[in-house]
Amino acid sequence: MKTVGTFLSRPWAVLVATVAFGAAMSLASGATIQVATFFLINVLLAHSVNLLTGFAGQISLGHAGFFGVGAYGCALLMRDYGVPLPLALAAAAALSSIVGYLLSFPAGRVREFYLAMMTLGFGMIFYEIAKEWTSATGGVMGLSGVPSPTLRTLSMFGVAIGPAAYLWIVLAIVAATTALLRNLIRSHFGRAYFAVHMSELAAGSVGISEAATKRSAYTLSAALAGLAGGCYAPLVGYLGPDSFALTRSVEALVMAIVGGLGSLPGQVLGAALFTYLPERLQAFAEYQFMAYGAILAVSFLVLPKGLAGVFTAPPRFAKIHAAALPSPLPVREPLPVADSPLLQAEKITMNFAGLLALDNVSLQLERGRVLALVGPNGSGKSTLINVISGVYRPTMGRVLFKGDDIARRKAHEVSRRGIIRTFQDPRNVPHFTVRENVLLGAHRLYRHGLWGAASNSRIALREEAAFLRQVDEMLQLAGLAELADWVLGDLPYGTQRLAEVARAAVSDPELILLDEPAAGLSETELEKLGVMIRQLRERRLGIVLVEHHMDFLNDLVDGVVVLDSGKVIYRGDMEGMRRDPEVAAAYLGIAEEEPAHA
Ligand code: ADP
Ligand code: MG
C-alpha cells in the first residue's frame, strides 16, 4: 500500500490525480459535486488542525470557532457588501488569523489539559455569540441568502459560477495550500514547529522562541480554518450556528488524528473518510458522536499513526536533495574579534529553595580556548551551564558575553547571540533524521521568511542548500555521514550525542557549552568528538567542556575550573590540578575509579 504513497510523493503525480479528481467530479451529478466540494473544505480544516496539533503539538478543541469566523465573515462580506469571492475568501482567512493570533497569547501560557479546556472555551463562546448576535448572524434562525453556486446566485468578474466551477475553484485553493504547507514544513519554520512540540529545551538551545513559534502556528492554523469556513459559506448558502458547535471542532480533530497527525497526505485521507463515511451511514446520524468515538478508539489501537501510517511515508523536514538545490548562498565571514573577553561569569550564585548549587562562582574565557569544567557529581557544573545558557536565572551575579549582561535573558535569546549548548541528556527531535536534527542547529542563521519558505523562493532554496552543505561537512567530520538519513530516535546513544554536538557546531556559535559530551561514547566516537572540538577551537570559538574523562581532556584543554559543592576550589592548568591536594580530596580519587555519569 505504501506504493500508492510513493507514487503520490511525486509532485506531477499529485497534480495528475488532482486534475483527474476534479474532472471526474465535475462530470457527476449536483449532489456528488456538493459532497466532493465539502470533502475539499474538510481537507483545509484538517490541514489547519494538523498544523497546530500535529506539527506544533498544541491541542485544539475550538477549531469550529475559527471555521465560523471565516464562514460568517465571508458570507456577510459577500451578501451585504457585494465583496467579490476571492477578496471575501482572503478576508475570511485574515479575520480568522487575527482571532488565532489573539488567542495564542492566553494559549501560550497554558499546556495540555488546560490548553484543551481553554480552546474548548473559545469554541463555546463563539457558538454562543453565533446564536445570540442576531443582527449579524441571524441567531438561531441562521443567515441565509449567501451567494451560492447551487442556486446560481454566485458570480465572479461578471461570470456565473455553478457547482462544477466552484468545485474547481476550491480544488485549486486546496492544491495550492497543500503545496505551500509541504514546502513550509520542509523549512526552518516546519522544523521549529516540530522542535517546540518535541523538546522545548532543544528548541530554545538553537534559538527557537517557543512563544513566537506557537503564535505563528495559531495564526496560520486559524487562517487555514478561516479559509475553509470562507469556502463553506457559498457552498451551503445558509449558515446556522449548529454548523459551528462543539461537534464540528471534535470532528475536525478526529479527522486529523485518524488521518495521521503530522502527515499532509494523511489529512486528505482523514477528510475523505469523514466526508464519505457519514454519507454512507446516514441511518446512524443520531449516533454520529458515538461513531466518531468508536472510530477514534479503534484507530488508536490499530492505526497509531493514522491512515497515513499505512499509506504514506513519514513526513520530512528539510528540502532534502541538496544536490538538486541551486548554488548555495555564500557563507558568513569569520567574526571580527572584539577586545572584551568572550565570557565573564561574575559571582554567580544559584539557590534552589535553600540548596546552594552555585556559590559565588566566577570564570572567564577567551576566544579560541577550551575551558574544562570538572567536579564530582552534584557539584554544580550543569547548573552553571544552565545559568550561562539562559535555562536558569541566577539568584545573584552577572554573565557577561562580549561585555553585555545576559544573565536574565531567555534561552533562545542567549543562543541567538551566539551561545550554543548541548545537554547532559541529549535533547534531539527523535522523529527527525540525523541530517534534519543537525540542520536544526542552523535555525538562528536563516534569513528568509514565511512566504519564501512556503513558495520555495530562490533565496530560500539557496539558503537551505548552503546550510545543508555545511551540515553534510559536519556529519562527515562526526563520522555520521552514512547515517544522515536515519531517524535519530532509532540510533544508539552515542550517535545521538554526536549529532547534538554537530547540531551545536553548525549553528555558527561564538561560545559553545558542552555538558559531558563524552559520556557513553565508544573509543571511535570519542575520537570523532575530539576532531569536532579541535575544529571548533581552530574556528576561534570559546569552548566550555564539562567532562570526567581526564585522558580525553589532557591534550585538549587550555584551562580547568574545578567545582565542589557549588564552590570553585581550583583554577589553573591540568598539571596543577593533578598536584592540588584539595582537588584530589574532592574529586580525583573518585573519578579515576568510576567515570561517573549523572
Ligand atoms: P553536576 O552537573 O555537577 O553533576 P548539577 O549542576 O546538576 O551538578 O547539580 C548541582 C546541585 O543542584 C545538585 O545538588 C542538584 O540536585 C541541584 N539542582 C540542580 N538543578 C536543580 C533544580 N532545577 N532544582 C533543584 N535542585 C537542583
Ligand atoms: Mg551535570
**Low-confidence parts:** 592-598
Separation of termini?
46 Å
Cofactors and ligands: adenosine-5'-diphosphate, magnesium ion
Q: Helical percent range?
A: 55-70%
Throw out a few tags for this protein.
598 residues; alpha/beta; ABC transporter involved in vitamin B12 uptake, BtuC; Rossmann fold; 2 domains; 4-stranded antiparallel β-sheet; 25 helices; 12 strands; 11% strand; disordered C terminus; binds adenosine-5'-diphosphate; binds magnesium ion
Describe the structure.
With 598 residues, the chain is an alpha/beta fold. It folds into two domains: 3-314, ABC transporter involved in vitamin B12 uptake, BtuC (Orthogonal Bundle), CATH 1.10.3470; 343-588, Rossmann fold (3-Layer(aba) Sandwich). The chain is 56% helix and 11% strand. The protein is built from 25 helices and twelve strands. A six-stranded mixed beta sheet has the order 8-9-10-5-11-12, sandwiched between helices. 49% of the residues are buried. Mean pLDDT is 90; it is low at 592-598. The structure holds adenosine-5'-diphosphate (ADP) and magnesium ion. Residues 352, 355, 357, 375, 377-383, 598 line the site of adenosine-5'-diphosphate (ADP). Magnesium ion is lined by residues 381-382, 424, 598.
Give the structure's gist in a few sentences:
With 598 residues, the chain is α/β, with parallel strands linked by helices. The protein is built from 25 helices and 12 strands. α22 links the parallel β9 and β10 (542-546).
